[in-house]
Amino acid sequence: MRVDHEQGTGSGVDPSARLAVNDSANNIMIRVEDLGKQVVSPEGPLVILTAVDFRIGRGERVAVVGASGSGKSTLLGLLAGLDAPSSGRVWLAGVDLGALDEDGRALLRAERVGFVFQSFQLLPGLTALENVMLPLELAGQADARRQAFELLERVGLGARARHYPAQLSGGEQQRVAIARAFAGNPDVLFADEPTGNLDQKTGHRIVELLFALNREQGTTLVLVTHDTELAAYCDRVLELDDGRLSERPPARTAGG
Amino acid sequence: MASIPTAMGSRSVAQRWLHTLRLALRALRRDWQSGELRVLALALLIAVASVAAVGFFNDRVQQAMERKASELLGADLVIAAPNPIRPELIEAARRQGLQTAALQNFRSVVLAGDAMQLAEVKAAGPGYPLRGALLISDRPFGPARPADGIPNPGQVWVDERLLSALQRQVGDMVELGTGQFRIQQILTDEPDRAGAVFSIAPRVLMNLADVPATGLIQPGSRVEYRQLLAGEPAALAAFRDWAQTRLQVGEKLQGVRDARAELRVALERAQRFLNLAALVSVILAGVGVAIAARRFAARHWDSVAILRCVGATQGVIVRLFALELLALAVLAGMAGLAVGYGAQFGLSEVLGSLLSQADLPAPSWQPLLPALLTGFITLLGFGLPPLLRLRAVPPLRVLRRDLGPVDARLLALYGPAVAATLALLIWQAGEWRLALYVCGGVAGTVVVLALAAWGLVRALGLLRGRVGVAWRFGVANIARRGSGSTVQVVALGLGLMALLMLTLVRAELLANWRASLPADAPNHFLINIQPDEVAGVRAFLHERGLQDVELFPMVRGRLTAINDRAVGPDDYEDSRAKRLVEREFNLSWTDRLQGDNRIVAGRWWQDGDSAMGAASVEKGLAQDLGIALHDTLRFQVAGQPLEAQVTSLRSVEWDSFRANFFVVFPSGVLDRYPATWITSFHLSAGQQTVLADLVRRYPSVTVLDVDALMNKVREIMDRVSTAVEYVFLFTLAAGLIVLYAAIQATQDERRFESAILRTLGARRAVVRRSLLAEFALLGLLAGVLAAAAATLLGYVLASHVFDFAYRWSPWVWLAGGGIGMLGVGLAGLLGARSALNQPPWRALREL
Ligand SMILES: Nc1ncnc2c1ncn2[C@@H]1O[C@H](COP(=O)(O)OP(=O)(O)O)[C@@H](O)[C@H]1O
Ligand SMILES: [Mg+2]
Fold first, then answer.
1. CA B329 remoteness from chain centre
2. End-to-end Cα, chain A, rounded Å
3. Given an 8 Å threshold on Cβ–Cβ distance, is B758 in contact with A166?
4. What is the pLDDT of residues B513-552, one digit of tens each?
5. B37-53: b or e for each residue (b if 16 or more CB lie within 10 Å)?
6. pTM higher than 0.80 for the full model?
7. Contact B262, B654 (CB under 8 A)
């Protein structure tokens, strides 16, 4: 295990600035170097991720697979800057996340990142429409309501705009979550087992919707799943095994 | 956990309870470790601690104050009789470990050469006074110092009025009966002087051992025998109980509270202030527990659903949580008692140095039981209802998380709790009226707060204007949370109301109380002014700068019948009522309602009232004797009957030290009866010679100096004010816990929301602003509503419980709104700080 190091140390030049130029030029959306995560649990230190290295290009669709508890969600959280790594670095859209403070990362997320969770994570006090409006409002968009409504229609829930999450089925809630994730045209979409809580048929529809929107908007997609069929839709498959990452070829090339 | 319910069927009831108890204890440990119970425990701990501290402290302050008041009697308890006190009574008192001292009071003429003067002689035995001190000085109007004991045999200490009447000086000899005595000291003050205001003539204090030598006491002489008693409260109470049933005709027991009306009223008010502080802290504790329990229950919906799923019956659920709560009550209650007891010591420390010679008696263990009971009833009463609702959580919640408990009979559940608390409050306060007003006020406030909050929350829903995402989100949140926000506004409102009541309204009440006895309140009474002296006395006072002095006629009469039904002492249970019927009391006439009197029922005089025989009765007397408006009263005045109809009831400020009368008539009604006149005025310390002149000019007029009494009343006021300030600190802590609990109540939702908001890219400032907007607005709503409630309750308390005029203060509103907005806003932010500084991923994982 490497010792944690401060971002920006060991070099006179700001590496993020240099790499930002390179990443944009090389069309790299996510770059991960020597990433490690370790937490202190009641039973002592627990290593979740070790020496993870990879790049994801703009517009790529990447599946992250692995057994439950292998560290997939943790990796996703680090990629989105929702949590701080113990070691190593993450560049998102050419920006070194470690060089930003919490608010800087929040701004970056507001501009470029969308999220879909296994357990939907809609705000229970907001209607479907208001949930979708939220990222648009946070980004200061003027016609948030119209855009949100269009997105809801796009996911087939225009008629349910005024319903609260508790009044929607799981599949419908996940569709609202997808609409919310695509609101504001993110460059990257992270999805953490988006079908994990749904039946197979509903899960299928969700996946189709996800990929359709991804195609329409040219979004980079990072999809955590243990569904091999779902992984097969993707361009690449990254496999986590007990905190270590390896790449394996996809079963078949993504079709429609 | 999953194995419990299936294994239950075959066991005995006892085993089942034992098993559930074990489970409950395990659940308590687990919940404690996960921190969910801590707010609940803290609310309870502060509740019990504050009630215990207030109880311990009130008890001690009350004891101290009664001791202070005892100084006015010179004792804690007095046996008074027209005959020598029976030895068996004195022995019984000694057996209880009480100190005793004997007194004899009689009137006699004092001779000095040709001059003579009627004097009030007090012959004192060793030990007098048991409480308070005699003050003496070497020359008239000289500096006073506490006396060491009583006059030696052969010596007397006299009032300076006697010296000026007899034209004698300290060191001269005077004759009392057949005895010769040397005037050794000027008697400036005696503790029980104030207690016997109707002492008519100048005072002579002599040694009891000299009485036989005077030959003044013969069979048939009018002598008042008094045995002074002092000692521990328990011993006094035991003696009182023992003696009460054995008193013979003419024998009386006089306690501190039987003393002067001014003092009785001051002490009663004092107790009310302290009780009020205690009451409010109990109610606050209940509210704190209710909110914390509501949150605790909501956090257990999931686990209850799972328990129900694996087959736990509703009974098991109820037992499980009831036992867990009970275990918590025991632990937190004990801790609370310890904290309360310790706090009370610190409190007395502080107070002890603030108050001169305040040797507070040791705390008694009496307040322990009420404090513990209060803790249990508050916890079970306010904490159990939301937990009982847990049994109604549908097992289906496992599948559909939006399903909560469906039992909507919350009122039915809180009903017994509120009733129990009310009973407890009444028991604790010992004053049903104060308790009812406070409870009614709080209950009314809850309803009004709930309605107003609900309306305002609705209105906010319409107000989702264009104020930026953070503010809009925050404001809209209040409307979105609907019932949750209403509960929160009610809780915050109650907490703030209590704080306002206890700061501003308390200050108002205390200030009003003190203002009722201003520095220039009358401190001297003149009585026995004959009708032909009235004009002369008025002119005499006027010449000496005492303008606006009013003289009132006074006729003594005894009430003999109400509506043709004869009344006597046996018709009444209450000892005060008995005394009132036994004695003659003062009747007066006037055409103008006195400034500090208020008509509370009926009307003031009209034409023809004089001919008809109308009367206006003081409301306390009316209450004690069962007199109603329009009743016909018959009096016996100077051997002749007098009938009058009650046309009004008046309230009177007895502690204003102005002359006041139980019954007044229109002028003309009392013309046939012999009257003397009475007046009162304020005389500053330098004007004492006026009295000497007055006594010389009008020898038959009696001067009563109530300065000492007023100072005692003022001292009690000061002590009570200080005590209330300190007791208030505990109530403040209880209020803060309520506010904290109210803010914590929605903290889980907010943590989740702020994590989601930040995941979606909101900067912390945005989240913070939206939190601030929401809390500040909630606080403003609650604060304004609280100010309204506090003002109303303060007004009702002032006018109906404490009996003063209430002054409306705009500060309550400003403070309510301002403190609500700033305090709740900042507190809300502080509460959310940890969630804001944590990476959002962690917050989402933990929820
Ligand atoms: N904050 C944390 N504290 C303790 N353990 C953690 C924490 N976060 C993750 N873990 C542990 O790290 C491992 C990986 O978790 P996670 O990333 O959620 O796995 P996956 O999503 O692949 O199922 C699990 O064993 C989990 O219990
Ligand atoms: Mg996971």
1. 29
2. 42
3. no
4. 677 667 777 788 887 788 888 889 888 888 888 877 788 8
5. bbbbbbbbbbbbbbbbb
6. no
7. yes
φ, ψ of residue A193 to 5 degrees: the values are 45, 60
The residue written with tokens 């503790």 in the block is: B191
> Counting Cβ atoms within 10 Å, is residue B429 exposed (0-12), middle (13-18) or buried (19+)?
buried
Closest residue by Cα to residue A80 from A66, A91, A69, A70: A91
For ligand 1, say whether the CB of A86 is within 6 Å of any of its atoms.
no
Give me the domain span that covers residue B357.
1-72+264-430
- The HSE-up count of residue B316 (CA atoms within 13 Å, CB side) is 24
Cα distances (Å, whole numbers) of residue A48 to A70, A78, A244: 7, 12, 9
Per residue in A196-213, pLDDT tens?
877 888 888 888 888 988
* Residue A189, H or E segment: strand A188-192
| Four-point Cα dihedral B226, B229, B233, B236, nearest 10 | -70
The whole-angstrom separation of Cα B23 and Cα B15 is 12
Superfamily in which the A15-248 domain is placed by CATH: P-loop containing nucleotide triphosphate hydrolases (3.40.50.300)
ipTM value: 0.75
CA distances from B686 to A203, B134, B502 (A): 99, 22, 40
Distance of CA B513 to the CA centre of its chain: 12
d(CA B80, CA B131): 17
Min Cα distance B401 → chain A (Å) is 8
Q: Check whether residue B341 and residue B223 sit in a common domain.
A: no
Between CA A10 and CA A23 the distance in angstroms is 21
Half-sphere exposure of B17 (CA within 13 A, CB side): 4
Of B320, B353, B388, the C-alpha closest to B21 is B320
Residues B132 and B253 occupy one common structural domain:
yes
Whole-angstrom CA distances from B789 to B387, B447, B497 are 29, 11, 7
Same domain, B8 and B54: yes
B763/A107 touch (CB, cutoff 8 Å), yes or no = yes
3-state secondary structure of B658: coil
Count of structural domains, chain B: 4
**Does the CB of A100 have a partner CB in chain B at under 8 Å?**
no
- For residue B81 the two structure tokens come to 């009789």
How many whole angstroms separate alpha carbon B422 and alpha carbon B429? 10
User: CA B466, B471, B476, B479 torsion: positive or negative?
Assistant: negative
A82·B759 Cβ contact <8 A = yes
Give the pairing type, strands A244-248 and B77-81. Answer: unpaired
Containing B50, the helix (H) or strand (E) segment is: helix B38-73
**Residue ranges per domain, chain A?**
15-248
Per-residue pLDDT in tens (0 to 9) along chain A, 256 residues: 333 343 333 334 444 444 455 666 678 899 999 999 998 888 889 999 999 999 999 999 999 998 888 999 889 889 988 888 999 999 998 899 999 887 788 888 888 888 888 888 887 777 899 889 888 877 777 888 899 999 999 888 999 998 988 889 888 999 999 999 998 888 999 998 888 877 888 888 888 888 988 888 889 999 998 777 778 888 999 999 988 999 887 665 444 3
Distance CA B135, CA B112 (A): 24
Q: Whose CA is nearest to atom 17 of ligand 1?
A: A71
Q: Ligand 1: which residue has its CA nearest to atom 2?
A: A39
A68 lines ligand 1 (CB under 6 A): yes
The beta-strand segments (E) located in B533-582 are: 551-562, 565-566
* Closest by CA position to A175, among listed A190, A158, A162, A189: A158
Among B653, B671, B705, give the residue marking a domain's end. Answer: B705
Q: What is the dihedral of CA B576, B582, B585, B587, to 10 degrees?
A: 120
